[in-house]
Amino acid sequence: MSVRTNPELTLDINRQSQVELLPAGWHALEVDAGRSFRWVDNDAAFALPPALNHFANVTVELEAGPGMGRQSFELTIRSGITQQVFSIQDRHSLTLTLPLSRHQSSCFSLHADGGGAPCPNDDRQLNFRVFLLATPLDIVTLQSGVELLAGWGPLETSGKELRRTVQTGARARFYAPRDTCVLVVDIGGGPSPVGLRIDLLDEQAVPVFTTAIDRRQLVCIRLPLVADTSGTFSFYFEWVGRSSLPPPVLSAFSLHLR
Known about the structure:
Layout: E1 3-4, E2 20-21, E3 26-32, E4 35-40, E5 44-48, E6 55-64, E7 73-79, E8 83-88, E9 92-99, E10 106-112, E11 128-134, E12 146-148, E13 156-158, E14 161-166, E15 171-175, E16 182-188, E17 196-201, E18 207-213, E19 217-222, E20 230-239, E21 250-257
Antiparallel strand pairs: 1-3, 2-5, 3-4, 4-11, 5-10, 6-9, 6-11, 7-8, 7-10, 12-15, 13-14, 14-21, 15-20, 16-19, 16-21, 17-18, 17-20
């Protein structure tokens, strides 16, 4: 038996992420076996904020309810631009890649085809319920203008601080909000007896920036991008004057454009 609860006392299904739940389609927050969820009538609406990044990854965990006869169903993610269709069987988790706007919030809805069957002992329409609808925590945000590609380790936490290990050759895409914007990278490792060289290469493997560090620090890189364009770049690391050492592995704590 689920319990309807005060949302101020229980973490909502958006987990305080950048997903905003809009009024349409959602029932009140409930808790069952320690998990919070919301039942959906249909066309449950949510929004993502304006962002430099062109896309957001949103994780959704859901399952069919009595309105769908607790059977598999087709879920459509609707927006003003596109729609995506998924087949949902049992309790299901999937990652949505959703388009974003730089100048206004982007609105979406979760739509179930069919449904509408009555629910015994409940006069609400309960087509499906959602346990999670959230953007992931990471060292970059939707507003950072940075999309991490290959070469970045899994997200780790140390106290309240997030970090990822980063291998030489790690790639990222940058979305420039203006001409010659600056990338700010919080990166490093422990104190090193030798210098560490960092190179940033463009898509043609041409170096666009070089510096040296010996501990964790903020590195500021002016990118050769014009406003409203994007580009993929690669980070390369090597020890200064110590080519016999294994390639360094660093920790990255944040990246953003300014």
